[in-house]
Amino acid sequence: MDFLQVHDLLIKKPNLLVSLLEMTELDTWHPDVCQFQKLKSYQSLNMDNAEKIIHVTQGVLLQQVNNPDICKISVNAIWSKDDVLFHNVFQQNQYEYLAIGDVEVAIFDARTVLDTLSKEPFFPDFLIEYNRRQQEEFFQFSYMLTKNIRERVLDVMKRFSKKHPDGYLVPKRVNSLLLSKCCQATPATIKKALLDLKHEKRIVKREQHLFIQD
């Protein structure tokens, strides 16, 4: 497998990078290779224009696009534990990152990592892992689509929320736009589902937050 093939696979399936690194002798604890950061809830991850690879080791990280010309921020992606994303590696961007709950990340120097991977022989283990992840993600996505929209909304909201003895406290930043990205539905459909859930008392207001009752 040559360098271009590695790049092609990593663009399509960036989470494979962790499996790839485990096959190398790269010292991922060296500060020139990787740095670790802990973020509090709603804290931004400040990134410069350098080429970086971000590995989410704990929590949920929102990737946002900021358009200063129209003062608009939109959610581009939601990353959770074990997800890997590229920052300014294959294209320059204006992404911002925001922690939902406590988040821990490992930030790799992208050039060092990719140069190391390009020199490694990749064995069938890599392709087996690739196929396993594909099947796993296909099942998760397909299973989600078997549920009605209200159940999808509840499942995703719980993923972002803090567990309490009698339910889940939902962060204020979990809105219809974010839920639409996760649930594969339009924001209008999500708003209708939220109204139905509130009418059924499955979601209530508590301490200025939405609360999902078990």
From TrEMBL:
<dbReference type="InterPro" id="IPR014710">
    <property type="entry name" value="RmlC-like_jellyroll"/>
</dbReference>
<protein>
    <recommendedName>
        <fullName>HTH crp-type domain-containing protein</fullName>
    </recommendedName>
</protein>
